[in-house]
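Quick one before lunch.
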Amino acid sequence: MSERAAAAATGVAAVAARTLNKTFGGVQALRAASFAAHAGEVHALVGENGAGKSTLIKILGGRFPPDSGTILLDGEPVRFSGPADATRRGIGTVFQELTLLPWLTVAENLLFGREPRGAGGLIRRASLATDAEAVLARLGISHIDPRAQVAEISLSERQIVEIARVVTKKPRILFLDEPTSSLVEREVAWLFERIRELRALGTAIVFTSHRWNEITSIADRITIYRNGSEVGTFTEIEEGEAITLMTGRRVDALYPKLPLLSAGAKDMLALTEATIPGLATPIGQPASDLSFHLRAGEILGIGGLAGQGHRELFLGLFGAPPLARGKIAVGGKPLRIHRPSHAINAGLGIALVPEDRKTEGLLLPLSVRYNLTLPILRRISRVGVIRAPTEGRMSREIITALGVRTPSAAQRVGALSGGNQQKVLVGRWLLAESRILLLYDVTRGVDVATRHEIYDLIMRLAGEERAILLYSSDTEELAHLCHRVLVLRDGRVAAELVPPVLTAEAIVSASMRQARAA
Amino acid sequence: MPRDSGEGAGARWRSPASHAFGQHIGLILAAAILLVAIIIFSVMFVIQQHRLPGNFEITSTVNNTMPLALAAIGQTIVVLTRGIDLSVGGVIDLTNALAAILLRPNLGNQLAVSVIIILIGAAGGLINGLLVGLGRLQPIVVTLATLSIYQGLAIRVLPQPGGAVPPGYTGFLVNPNAPTALVFLLIAIVLWLGLRRTRLGVDIFAIGADEQAAIALGVRTVRTKIIAYTLAGALYAIAGLFLAATATAGDATTGDSYTLTSIVAIVLGGVSFFGGRGSAIGAIAGAFIITMIVNILFFAKINPLYQAFYEGLFLVIAVVLGALIGRLVRARR
Ligand SMILES: Nc1ncnc2c1ncn2[C@@H]1O[C@H](COP(=O)(O)OP(=O)(O)OP(=O)(O)O)[C@@H](O)[C@H]1O
Ligand SMILES: [Mg+2]
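Model of the adenosine-5'-triphosphate complex:
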């Protein structure tokens, strides 16, 4: 690592930025920001939510020009006329908010702009799928159907397709903006293998991540951003020190203590013999049946490999769409949940923080305030008219409590950084005072400091006798935050882990062992 | 990175046919609705006329549908970019009026006039495209405004219905003796399938699916939108020519109804108003469904005063049924 870093430090940077400034409305996303990455290095770009990482990457990827400042490729100043121009110059970018087209197939997306051509220069639609399959296979991906529409595949699969699309173009400079946030460990391992291959070929790779273990396992150098500027670039740095540089303050032990679960805690949510919709059942086996109880004050983790029905389970408990079969009881009373309003209005209030905040949770063109108070409009209205002062006060409280970085409550949610959007989504259900929280990968794309705050928040919520169902793509997180973890496989509970065997390794091996046994 | 569960990858995939079915469900439904309409019509026809519909019925149905089918293809291209074009009626009015006063019996004139009129239609579309693309204005507002402008121009060109379309011209476009106009539809379909296989076609779909993503992918969205509206304008002009040929005379208000019917046709044809999904072939089917509904009402001896009411009723039924079936099919998979 140090050898490579030393080589890098002497040569001319493959890509560099000097004194970049970028302002959005009133927000200065970049202030005199600098950055440099060399050929053949993996360069991590880290910083809090809203630090300006994505803005830097978008500028270097040709999405938009900076207000001022210089971009250098191999030491030469350049100006991009657009993303296509940047691509032509050998830059490949996986943007944080994916850029796949939902109604096109995986193959059409994967080969977008380089479709196979036949007679008269016309696209050979017939061979799109087979070409795509070959491209995926070369990258070691065999589980994604190139003929499926992107709208039909899961978020992690979309992320992989997006990465594949950029990587196959063999860019000289590769930007990956939070490529791992929706990937599980095995998929991350796959990505890192690809990154190592590209590094060996001399590609300059820049990636952002909020997971420190990923950064230390692959990065040759680390650049820290804070408030739109570079704080420093390091070859070797301790996590604690890095966090202090990112946040400007010290953050203590990452995982908080779990609140004790009282023995007589009553059932808040019971699921019996549910069937996950749309999950292919292996032939010869009965339809999946999934049962569990969730008690007041309990944090129940749902683990297992991707595609085993977690997402469908969480959406199903929220009625979006409902589970195919099975009984749901809330607070001991049987309940039919056919659409989200049933869940929200159920005696104890079920809240879902969904996976894809862009399409399932937030109304991007509307204000932060509106997004926060949407489910409680009735409560804060008098004779059908929203009481603006109450609405304003409540949303400001949440913004402060969660440290949402926004110029005001009136800002468009779509203009916030990824992590801050996630905070708004969590904040919404805090306001709604739901008693049952379904948290699906809540810390996805959230920075260390905020993640710490969200952990504390989860503990506080559990301490208030709320029941929490938690899924995380980060197994460490599951192991540390939950009283109990159910490992899913093919839509059924394959293992139930409780302390002392509740560790990240145990979760992983439970899901793998089950997988191999099949 | 094989599938986590380690299953054979291929086994999990749905067959290509199943994918095609799901991805073309709108088109398949449109074809099914059209088939039902044709059957209903034929049954009524046999009951009243004691014979099957023949050459005359088929020819007049095809000829009457041509203008709407062409307008609907244009509308499809615009709606695929997540736009909408209300100026259809105005462009048809204008081009129809121009055709009525400019066309002469000699071939050279007819050729030149047709080309000029198509270019005028394209220019009308280009104005829409420039305002929507470069001006970043809402398509609905832009095309509502240009609709009125083109309608006004049409009235200037032809204040009273009149003019004359040479019989030779009519015979070529809408031969009254045989459904030869189907050839033009076939050409349109071939061109459409070709467009789907060009950069432009892919870009039109991309913009409609997610404009921001398309920009990030390097699609030149402004340019593509301008071309889309221009192409649509040219198609409306061709529709105007066919309309003039069918009526053998011009009328500066005859195109007005096409704004709405072209939209209805594409809805029936399974084109998504949210952009990015749909097909001109579906739109053509939608146009034929509308003609068949009119035919059915004629044979049901509906009082012409109530015709609009029943047309609306049938359309609602067709759209609702289509949506329901579509949802059922999607839920089953
Ligand atoms: N299009 C936009 N309009 C308005 N403000 C914006 C826009 N894009 C970014 N910002 C603001 O610029 C700042 C930097 O955002 P950026 O997305 O670069 O952060 P980030 O470091 O990538 O954060 P995260 O880790 O959450 O992804 C944020 O305060 C954000 O709200
Ligand atoms: Mg970001």
